[in-house]
Specification:
Blueprint lengths: L8 E5 L3 H11 L3 E9 L1 H7 L5 E9 L2 E13 L17 E4 L3 H10 L9 E5 L2 E9 L5 E6 L5
Parallel strand pairs: 1-4, 5-8
Antiparallel strand pairs: 2-3, 3-4, 6-7, 7-8
Amino acid sequence: MTGVTTLDHVSVTVSDLERSLPFYRDLLGLEERERHRLEGEGISTMAGKRDVVLQVVRLAAPQTPGILLDLQQYLAPAGSTSNAQLGDVGHAHICFGVTDIDATCRELRDRGVELVSEPVSFELESGLLKVVFLKDPDGNVLELVEYPHGA
């Protein structure tokens, strides 16, 4: 085996792209790169499900444009809502870097976003690291991190 050489994309399954796009694009500031609809035998085979119809919007953070976030909505077959929480096997989260976590959290809270907690600080050799978890419109957990200045 030659091993992994890059990180291409991460995907998040959402129940309604038109509800999730304003959150990820307009509120978090990710930039839309492309949209496409996937259907047919190839996508069904790849997904291991019959008659898959998938709508995908690809987004990128301004400073890491080569790593994409795919928001995907299964138009068919209908999926179920996961109950996985932080700490549960099978649960994953995405972490986004921000420059001012306190200001970002105030703005998110003012716009109705559910924060799991207030930002928490960790003292590192390079300085103070701040992190917070929040939830997207479907309850998917995301993390924000503010790295020490100069790190």
